[in-house]
Specification:
Keywords: Receptor, Signal
CATH superfamily of the largest domain: Bordetella uptake gene, domain 1
Radius of gyration: 21 Å
Family: Belongs to the UPF0065 (bug) family.
Protein name: Tripartite tricarboxylate transporter family receptor
Number of domains: 2
Organism: Clostridium liquoris
Pfam family, one: TctC
Shape: globular
Number of strands: 10
CATH class of the largest domain: Alpha Beta
Order of helices and strands: HHEHEHEHEHEHEHEHEHEHHEH
Distance between the termini: 20 Å
Oligomer: single chain
CATH topology of the largest domain: D-Maltodextrin-Binding Protein, domain 2
Structural class: alpha/beta
Length: about 350
């Protein structure tokens, strides 16, 4: 599998017209208005959106972000979290289209933002948003109930090689999206044939952990940070992660990678913040700069280490170019497994 690559940015030039120079006071007024907007924004509560239910990766990321922003006093207005579930993120994406030009919405997304468009789940994609900043890279994790017969990720793959329908995989993202794709990529790299036949069950209410605990699926494909507590309490066992090397601390650092287990593949789950389409420039600039400051705080560094997240800040322009690259890469991935629409 090809690894996601970052690409770099562009700058914006402001041009003054001769009429503004002639009037004198017109130039001062324009500068004054710009400064006033910068000082006065944000003046009211923001709407922070998690595009899925409570307990998942998007929910964890945006709640953690809001807490750090508040604790560090980088933002003083309220930042209540709204969970807009459904469609693997498509419901929240449709909601953003109704809020075109809004300066009061910030939402979090990751690879499903691109995948649900490429697999035909929605007509909308990352180009129907305002990318603000990329913040982290998370990694996939494959976990089982503590009494599962599968002791390693290779046990799972060997069973699938004999019968691709023998292991039920569950995930909180929709079919053809991230939790599904990250497992299929590892299975393909492990030499499993007919990977399209592997049963995948989607739990978009973020009940995947409960489903694997209850024996309704054999393996839960998720993110490392999302199951940390259940691993610490020994209710779940982590078989492997999709990182290139071990990450995080404590129980997260104890999780072997698929590469360690002889499966030569890596999957990176980037996460970033987005605004509504046509988010005003003053709002984009404010949040871009604020997320940059947040990414440099000790509070943020600590939560990233705890959750096994790699800190990877990118500004809006760099993030857009990164997304363009991801879009092309994911097309190749979906084409390989027969899910490109």
């Amino acid at each position: 599998m090809k690894k996601i690559k970052t690409i770099a940015g562009v700058c914006l030039t402001l041009v003054m017209t001769s009429s503004m120079i002639f009037s004198g006071c017109g130039s001062q007024s324009a500068n004054s208005d710009s400064k006033e907007k910068k000082v006065d924004y944000p003046k009211k509560a923001m709407e922070f959106i998690a595009p899925a239910g409570a307990g998942g990766g998007w929910d964890l990321t945006i709640r953690t972000t809001a807490k750090v922003l508040g604790d560090t006093k980088l933002v003083s207005v309220p930042m209540p979290i709204t969970n807009k579930t459904g469609g693997g993120g498509a419901i929240a994406l449709s909601y953003l289209q109704q809020k075109k030009g809004s300066d009061s919405i910030v939402t979090v997304y990751s690879p499903p933002l691109i995948l649900i468009n490429l697999n035909g789940s929605t007509e909308y994609g990352y180009k129907n948003t305002t990318p603000i900043a990329r913040l982290i890279t998370d990694y996939g994790a494959f976990v089982v109930a503590k009494d599962s017969k599968y002791k390693t990720i290779n046990d799972v793959m060997e069973s699938l090689k004999k019968d691709p329908k023998s292991v039920k995989i569950g995930g909180n993202s929709s079919a053809g999206s991230m939790d599904h794709i990250q497992f299929l990529l590892m299975a393909k790299a492990a030499g499993v044939k007919n990977i399209k036949e592997i049963p995948y069950i989607s739990f978009q209410d973020n009940s995947g952990s409960a489903q694997v605990l209850g024996g309704h699926v054999d393996v839960f494909s998720t993110g490392l940070g999302e199951v940390r507590t259940l691993i610490e309490s020994s209710q779940l066992r982590a078989l492997a992660s999709t990182a290139a090397k071990r990450v995080g601390t404590g129980v997260i650092k104890d999780v072997p990678t698929c590469k360690e287990m002889g499966i030569d593949a890596v999957f990176e789950n980037w996460r970033g913040m987005f605004g509504a389409p046509d988010m005003p420039d003053y709002a984009l600039k404010y949040w871009e700069e604020t997320f940059k400051k947040m990414s440099e705080t000790e509070d943020w560094k600590k939560v990233c280490e705890t959750n096994g997240w790699d800190m990877v800040y990118q500004n809006s322009e760099d993030f857009k170019k990164f997304l363009d690259g991801c879009n092309e890469q994911y097309k190749e991935i979906l084409q390989e497994i027969g899910m490109l629409k």
